[in-house]
Design a protein that fits this description.
Elements: E1 33-37, H1 43-50, E2 55-60, H2 63-72, H3 74-78, E3 82-86, E4 98-104, H4 113-123, E5 124-135, E6 142-145, E7 148-151, E8 159-166, E9 169-175, H5 178-187, E10 191-196, H6 213-218, E11 222-228
Parallel strand pairs: 1-2, 1-4, 2-3, 4-5
Antiparallel strand pairs: 5-11, 6-7, 8-9, 10-11
Length: 231
Amino acid sequence: MAGLFFSHSFLPVWGPFGIGKHAAVIGPIKGKTFLEVGFGSGHSINYLVQKGARKVYGVDISKTKLDFAAELNKVPITKGKVELFEKPMEKRLKLEPIDTVFSIYGFGWTIDPKKTLANIYSYLKPGGQFIWSWDNSVFSVIHEEAGKLVVSGSYHEEREFIAKKWKGVPVYLKYRKTATWFRLLRDAGFMVDDYMEPAPIMKKDLTATYYTIRKAERIPCSAIWICIKPK
């Protein structure tokens, strides 16, 4: 299914409906080092290189996505400015201390958030930041049906499930409340510096019942977390 996500939601955008004024949350780029968790087609990596990043690493579990990203970033890879890893985010990488780890709708797929957060924490310099976006937890339990917003599950009921609407391919997901994400980040040692729930700027439906603009205009679609590794 990697082709479904080719060039979707990459820097400076953080979610499916666009982010607007929140595009600059990545902070200074020139001369900095970055790691993208779940690099997809590699467009965010290319964006950072073009903006003067010293080095950009990327990790993704998909060989197809790695091929996409490697082709797009062929020149900076040969110059040693980009290095890609085909591994699960739960596996520890050997990396120099880096300035910023980020993930655009990638980190939320982890099957072991404690292990993944421990990895991310270890990669960062003291004072480094982890910035990531994911579906807002409230958005996840509401769908649109016949023009009305319908609560399709309990916000309080955290659950694992297999989604079967991805062209017939079963996909594992786990729904977590915002409070749970906060505790996971805190317990990993991070300080949550900011939390954003931006309004949409792209005014069109992306799916028939889930990513609809009427829903996104009333309920925040994306959540963006800015987390700091204390000095």
